[in-house]
Amino acid sequence: MDYLDPKKKHAHKIRIFVGYGLFAVLIALATLLLVYVADGYYIDRSTGEVIQNGLVYVSSRPGGAEVYLNGEKQRGVTDERLVIPSNTYTIKVTKKGYRDWGRTIRLEGGTLRRLTYTKLIPKTLLPTVGINLRSNPSSVSQSIDKRWLVISYADSPLSLSLIDMNASPITNRTLQIPKIITNNKDGRLKVVEWAGVVRQVQQNT
To answer: What is the pLDDT of residue 4?
Structure first.
């Protein structure tokens, strides 16, 4: 019987170890290949060269805009992901009724570039009335997050307009400052701290 023959038993062990070794090498090569593919490497079929890709993410406001890469229209629209070799590219974003937007970028292999600040401007700007002010403002201040706008008036310095710029439509509320906190000559106020709304005021002496 073969399993009782020492020579055949030894040869069988060698075949098993060789098989395990080849299988381990195959797994290592497959893992290495997957790592390179994940890092953007691929073989150019026309030249046979190994090239590393990069990723460009293009978004726009409003969305649904066409994307051109070096003058060639891409399949998708914004928000679009472009997997392309490292190089210098001219990217253009177009949408009907809006002005074209363009930018030249240098893309390195294995890197990600985000063009997420694309804001398309309409070709025709139509003025609209957001709010009506009761008189000419004497001063205007805006919160750090650009949401709140506070307007004061020379004829009524204690009656401020508090405007929420994020509301649709824009809302205008009156913020009445108590008379007890002002006893100076002109009654003017100075903003000391901004938060979500005006929290603290100080006499402008």
So the answer is: 61
